[in-house]
Amino acid sequence: MTDHIIIERHGAAQVLRMNRPEKKNALTREMYARMAAALAAGDADDQVRVHVFFGVPGAFSAGNDLGDFLAVATGGEGGGEVWDFLMALAKAEKPVLSGVDGIAVGIGTTLNLHCDLTFATPRTVFRTPFVDLGLVPEAGSSLLAPLVLGRQKAFSLLALGEGFSAEQAMAAGLIHAVVEEGELEATVLAAADAVAQKPPEALRVTRDLIRGPREPLLDRIQQESELFRQRLKSNEARAAFMAFMNRRKAG
Ligand code: COA
């Protein structure tokens, strides 16, 4: 097992730290599996009151590992770990916070749509190049982004793949606050501590009311996943993955 996901406890906060800096935190199947297991374990643990996601300095996540996508595109199996992670995230029973610094591509952006509070640094850019990769949105983002951002900004993010700076993301309601790099971790952990101090039952009911029924979200993730799997095997997607994998050779 690698140390690409580090699970730590800070008081009542369970911290899930993505830690594959040499690949800008591109997520492998193992990383998804470990995060799914940690979310489920944290939800089942009375000592844990809140989940927190961090990346490494400069890279929250560059999204799904494109090598893994290419493997599926060229006939391999895969996707079960991603599915498990998305289910664990969408069904998480305890509040989820995130601290984002730098690169936030694909799931590195859409994960935050599930978060109750996201803090990001000024150098952060949120981007989802799904369509450019021949793909479709995932993680329920086709439902959540229009709800959070409105349809036009959702189109700009999800269909055009336009980057949102931290300031733009805050103005659009995608994140809670912008904080300097040096203060990110302490700010998020302080927020997690504040969440953890609340009476857990009242907080759980309040959070459920704010989020509304989960079925539409789970249905949309299912629908997106089927389309995503089809798109992974499309010529458009295969060509985009090959172009990324070969870009150094070509350059
Ligand atoms: N999958 C696999 N490897 C990835 C990756 C991904 N999603 N994102 C980055 N990497 C790898 C690069 O191939 C490179 O590996 P190498 O050093 O062995 O060549 C390493 O991480 C560093 O990336 P690099 O591109 O040199 O960093 P950068 O700062 O110039 O650019 C990104 C960072 C994220 C803008 C760029 O890597 C990128 O566009 N990645 C693809 C993002 C993506 O499309 N994700 C899928 C979304 S659905």
Q: How many structural domains does the protein architecture include?
A: 1
User: Termini, distance in Å?
Assistant: 34 Å
Order of helices and strands: EEHEEHHEEHEEHHEHEHHHHH
Overall helicity: 40-55%
Beta strands, count: 10
* Multimeric status of the protein: single chain
Basic shape: globular
CATH topology: 2-enoyl-CoA Hydratase, Chain A, domain 1
Runs with pLDDT <50, length 5+? none
Range of strand content: 15-25%
Main β-sheet, in a few words?
6 strands, mixed
Radius of gyration from CA coordinates: 17 Å
The CATH first-level class comes to: Alpha Beta
Total of helices: 12
Would you identify the CATH H-level superfamily? 2-enoyl-CoA Hydratase, Chain A, domain 1
Q: How does the helix and strand content classify structurally?
A: alpha/beta
Q: What strand order characterises the main sheet? A: 1-2-3-5-7-10
**Architecture per CATH nomenclature, i.e. the level-2 architecture:** Alpha-Beta Complex
Overall pLDDT confidence: 96
Bound molecules: coenzyme A
